[in-house]
Amino acid sequence: MTSDAATATSTTRATPPPEGPDPGQEPPALGLGTSLPPADARAKTEGTFPYAADLWAEGLLWAAVLRSPHPHARILSIDTAAAAGMPGVHAVVTHEDIPGDGSYGRRVVDRPVFASELVRHHGEAIAAVAADHPDTARLAAAAIAVEYEVLEPVTDPEKAFAAEPLHPDGNLIRHIPLRYGDPDTVGEVIVEGLYRIGRQDPAPIGAEAGLAVPRPDGGVELYTASTDPHTDRDLAAACFGLDPERVKIVVTGVPGATGDREDPGFQIPLGLLALRTGCPVKLAATREESFLGHAHRHPTLLRYRHHADAEGRLVKVEAQILLDAGAYADSSSESLAAAVAFACGPYVVPHAFIEGWAVRTNNPPSGHVRGEGAMQVCAAYEGQMDKLAAKLGIDPVDLRLRNALSTGDILPTSQTVTCPAPVAELLGALRDFPLPTLPKDAPEDDWLLPGGPEGAGEPGAVRRGVGYALGMVHMLGAEGADEVSTATVRVHDGVATVICAAVETGQGFTTLARQIVQETLGVEEVHVAAVDTDQPPAGPATHGRHTWVSGGAIERAAKMVRTQLLQPLAHKFGMSTELLQIADGKITSYDGVLSTTVSEAMDGKELWATAQCRPHPTEPLDESGQGDAFVGLAFCAVRAVVDVDIELGSVRVVEMAVAQDVGRILNPSQLATRIEAGVTLGIGAALTENLRTARGVIRHPDLTGYALPTTLDAPDIHIVKLVEERDVVAPFGAKPASAAPVVTSPAAVASAVRAATGRPVNRLPIRPQAAVATPRP
């Protein structure tokens, strides 16, 4: 079914809600389905929210990290004497100060904390310094003398196959050969394409920061903006040579995340310095250090061949997908699995043959960024659909509708789509949504031209294009990942407390937790405890995990408390607890005999319960790329309208219209915000965001050289339709909201630029020369 509210239009220029209700108004509605505002909204908007960079401790020292200026080099010697002898310097640490082999990795343990013999990427950490002033720490780091033998970097992933091994584990991280159907099948119409996707940076609103505090027992506490604290704790403990129980991570001030928010490479040097000095040590990375130190979206090379019959129905898809993992493996195996599994898109394809590789190079490390793997292939397969439509003379929307996936269809991995898959419904809603009016050519409307105010273009050179794209993402982890979360709900004196190690990264989890408890227990005041590793693990904040797994654990714990609350009343009145309901803070029976408030029923008692949520298991893809690898899927359709100056190649996105499969709307306001943010991130990948390198060296690692879309670049974003068809295996029936528009929006923008220019547009971000076309007469 579809929600009436979902057909309303949402734009980026919406008026913000008032600070609070006017006197005399009804209090805001509580529970799921309401737009409960975030508890920290006021503090963040007023600038009083304590981020990790604001941390302080008595006797604080400052850390700085020395990083390699070369992408590939042999380390001949490291001399720390000059740095250690500087006034104010308390410690200098290198690879020699780390127990064992000194390597870490969330998925594959292959990345050294400090390079020892070889440098494998530009910006790799060599040593770290603790000093009594941040300037002293940076000067001391610069004083460390490192003698390098510069080596030829391997920066072309295609050449990595034949190159000398860059790592003891070799250059090939993973190869997935997907085989589905008959390889000899040939379509009546064939189109081919070569596509390149650039290196998008997560560009967190706040650069990495943290504080390490030594403990009396010889352990250490790390205060960071981690999004996966228990994994980070275990990695850090191994590098410190400590038991995990002696390392504690306290999640502090996460400013938002579009990927793995805090790379362990920032946390581990902090802890080493704190253990060495016996003093608290703080690190606040510069923006340049942030660009050099964390992982980015995988640059990807994709070759495609689509086969179709004369009516445009897909017959076979052949593809080769090459992910540039950079120097270390990180999440490349998982990203490749998503890319290969979704290489055909949300379309019915009876025969598919996909080759996927992830390889090491001397480029900057790649890792988890929202929509990894799925975004790259979406840009390619939708480019192919545009080519196929043009060759057949079929409307691009009609072509997509003829091939749209639906519930019960089978993916090329042989997994049956059991969840709701309203792909055709989403695309149909966009086709029926009115297009924006064309701008006038009058001089007073020049600001509408591509290039912004005072742009150099001429109105006569501007062409409008409309493009469509369909995308899909998977929910939770994949290929046998153990997805589990634990939560505790405690109620006392009319106040509920939720204890769960799920990190709020801007996805609205803490607000959802409050809504779940409010709806289940009728308690208005709900607090979500700060996250640390003394709590049971909840896993990483990726792929909508916490909405499903952690939200499910909270719901189960809250229902257990609800049973504890209602059982005495049910027993007293001779009825079962199922005949009692809680709403608006009141407990009533089905027949009206019982009516009391939750606070009266509590009568000063403290009730609590702990519960876990673990979804049904998945399995790894086999040697032919087959298997039930995903817990669930979510789908999105995007229509982009662009104006292109075909003489200058400048592009202005006029409007983005979105129709999305959300399962169930849990918080309308937050859902709209997440979708709009995802679309904007996708626009950045389509037009401006590309972390450029020259022979492996990052060029301009700052926010002047790396162009993020601003409010001036954000178009009107219309949420045309939100399909609420609940996934029966998901708690609340909800699906993740923000990854699907990130995946789909770049492909839609590229499709619109193709429509405006007639050019193939096979590279993201779109370069000006790719948008230049011959003016129409």
Automatic annotation (TrEMBL):
Feature: compositional bias, Pro residues: 15-26
Residues of the Aldehyde oxidase/xanthine dehydrogenase a/b hammerhead domain: 46-152
Renumbered residue ranges of the record's region Disordered: 1-42
Domain of life of the source: Bacteria
TM spans (from-to): none
Biased composition (Low complexity): 1-14
Pfam families per the UniProt record, alphabetical: Ald_Xan_dh_C, MoCoBD_1, MoCoBD_2
Name listed for the protein in its UniProt record: Xanthine dehydrogenase family protein molybdopterin-binding subunit
